[in-house]
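Q: I'm writing a short explainer about Acyl-CoA dehydrogenase for a general audience and would like to include a description of its predicted shape. Could you first generate the structure from this sequence?
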Amino acid sequence: MTAVVDDLGSSGAGYLTDERLAIQAMAREFAAKEVLPVANELDPVKGEIPMELRRKMADLGFFGVLIPEEYGGLGLGVFEYALIVEELARAWMSVSSLIARGQQFTAGFTEEQRRQYLPRMATGDFLSAFALSEPDAGSDVAALSTRARREADGWRISGQKMWCTFADGADYLQVFARTSPIDRDHRSRGISCFIMPKPRGELPAGVTGTPVRKIGYHGWQTWELSFDNAYAAGDSMVGPEGEGFKVAMGDLETARIHTAARAIGVARGALEDSVAYARQRVQFGRPIGDNQAIRFKIAHMATELEAARSLMYRVCTEVDAGRRNTVEASMVKYLATEMAERVTSEALQIHGGAGYTTDFAVERYWRDAKLTKIFEGTSEIQLKIISDSILGRQAR
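A: Of course. Here's the predicted structure. Afterward I'll give you a sentence or two in plain language.
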């Protein structure tokens, strides 16, 4: 498989301070030496991310990039987070996703919950699986029907959940359920969020699951879960009762930047591997990179990649400055993920028949790029958000 042979990362003029360049270089070296060889070995056989690799990531502080220093994190911004995510995703997107499991969707925590959980999250010792989507509630999150029934000292949760990645390997499930009947005029009300701790490697008592037969995003399992009176403690609620929808939506700027960074990293991996292959592969007596058709493909791929990264840098800067960027986060998520699908497809084409085998990493990038257009809000949802901001929301 092709290794990292070209540095096609952006110079980031005007954005990349010496500190940021050092963070980027550290993450890039780690991804190339520690992540990429593991990905090339395990992804083709659907192996799981090794615990040893997770420990090395924890030692570098990757699980606590966004967690304040007072709780044991690095206390850095979304910009630095995106730099690290891109580098990890260039090697294996699943690993770049793993670091979100301890530092996203925590805004609704009480101070007591922050003191209790954030230090453990920052060290990678308390990682989450997000149980939000359901068979009939994907993009339409407010349609969820899982119910939480109050009992003397806690809650009993029953219902179905879909697309819960890392449900077995996580240290807790973050579960969204209705604590009051649905209001047809205000469907997002009455949803609450719960933390459900559990032993690592198991599902909680009262929860059974079936792994989803997915085509990519290997390194961990994604689950369909059934909750049958599963217990959640009385102090496990995140945010006020009935306002779980706000918890789920409250971190979407960071989540969509995270996905844009993943898409950019995946696309960069495909581009760098394509440059290497175009130089090495000889046909008709010369490297295929001498052919204008291949050269122009690579030029177009590089241009699209740089455009997406530049927008991401700007959005990160605005978010770190405390300015709301909901629409712009949707824009960069849309632009980067659509770009990633095109770039990885062109990369596979450049590799020809070799690209359609698991002997080259480009097919991994191709499979994973497609997913970036689906999770954290589909491309169509992003277009709706963007168009509504320009034209106004349509009447129901």
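A: For your explainer, you could say: The CA atoms of residues 179 and 353 lie 53 Å apart.
Q: Perfect, that's easy to follow.
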